[in-house]
Design goal:
Blueprint lengths: L14 H19 L11 E6 L5 H12 L3 E5 L13 H9 L4 E6 L4 H7 L5 E6 L5 H15 L6 E5 L6 H12 L3 E5 L8 H9 L4 E4 L2 H5 L4 E4 L10 H7 L7 H6 L5 E3 L20 H19 L4
Parallel strand pairs: 1-2, 1-3, 3-4, 5-6, 5-8, 6-7, 8-9
């Protein structure tokens, strides 16, 4: 179903495809936890190209490839590649496409994923394109929601923080709409969800509220998806300084929130979730990060036709 396909954004998926990804991830999770030797990608080469800093996404993709038995070739920063010499992204991808069976890339430019996919014959997976989309994060997010909540639909989800530049919330919004969840967008006015995304989601039938009141949103939400204010997306440092502490989720706020609320965060966090939340049983963000390996194993296996 996904063999040979590029993974560019979350709007591309059907419920059937999402179920396949989730079920494949669950199968791989079971095998890993049982200590099984997995050889689905034996003989394959996975290129992991990161032109922007990353810990979880890069390492979990490399872990996923290694657990599947693939070999991994890596660009960990722009300075280590010919991009530093002025090579175009298209030329880089055309070159790497001749070395690997699947390409995973993160790039600071919005729209770079489409450029890469257009210049690759082999499957391409978008690991984040600037302020655009981060589909594999959203897929591990819904895998986490399924595990934590038992179902993907029927929830009220608060998206909190930087909704303007936050590619993780852009991607997750489409999946939450697909599963008929109500969304509450909580942000300062300057960091509201882009109007084109909000309009598109509403056009798909999504129920959306927008507010600046975090406490009010937490009182009615089953899930809070918290994001950091991203320093690297701001052209004006003063604007970042003004907005960076807009929302801080602490244990006192959790105690006033809807009972049983699940807290998610794509990480890294800076100060937007206090460490006193970490021992709250619904704080799922580190479990969420670990789930990335299984979902990315599923994607690599599915797009190469080796699931």
């Amino acid at each position: 179903m996904l063999k040979g396909k590029d993974i560019l954004n979350t709007a591309q998926f059907s419920v059937q495809e999402l179920n396949l990804i989730m079920n494949t991830a669950a199968c791989f999770e079971k095998q890993v936890k049982e200590g099984s030797i997995i050889r689905n990608l034996e003989g394959q080469v996975v290129a992991v190209l990161f032109f922007e800093p990353s810990t979880r996404t890069r390492l979990s993709f490399e872990t996923a490839a290694n657990r599947l038995g693939a070999r991994v070739i890596t660009v960990a920063e722009p300075a280590s590649s010919s991009v530093a010499k002025g090579e175009s992204l298209a030329d880089t991808i055309r070159t790497v496409d001749g070395y690997a069976d699947v390409i995973v890339m993160r790039h600071p430019m919005k729209g770079s994923a489409q450029i890469a996919a257009d210049n690759a014959i082999h499957p391409f997976i978008n690991a984040g394109d600037g302020s655009g989309h981060h589909p594999t994060q959203a897929l591990l997010d819904i895998y986490t929601i399924r595990k934590e909540k038992g179902a993907l639909g029927g929830h009220t989800v608060a998206f909190v923080g930087d909704l303007k530049y936050g590619r993780t919330v852009h991607s997750l919004g489409y999946l939450m709409a697909l599963y008929k969840n109500k969304m509450i967008f909580v942000s300062p006015k300057a960091l509201r969800m882009p109007e084109e995304i909000t309009a598109d989601l509403r056009g798909r039938g999504a129920e959306i509220e927008e507010t600046e009141d975090l406490k009010e949103a937490l009182a009615v939400s089953d899930i809070a998806y918290v994001t950091r204010i991203q320093r690297e997306r701001f052209e004006d440092p003063a604007e970042y300084e003004r907005l960076k502490g807009s929302y801080i989720l602490n244990r006192a706020l959790i105690d006033q929130a809807k009972k049983g609320i699940t807290i998610l965060h794509p990480l890294p966090r800076v100060d937007e979730i206090s460490t006193d939340v970490d021992d709250y049983e619904g704080a799922a963000y580190f479990r969420q990060a670990h789930n990335g390996v299984y979902v990315r194993m599923a994607l690599l296996a599915l797009v190469t036709g080796r699931a």
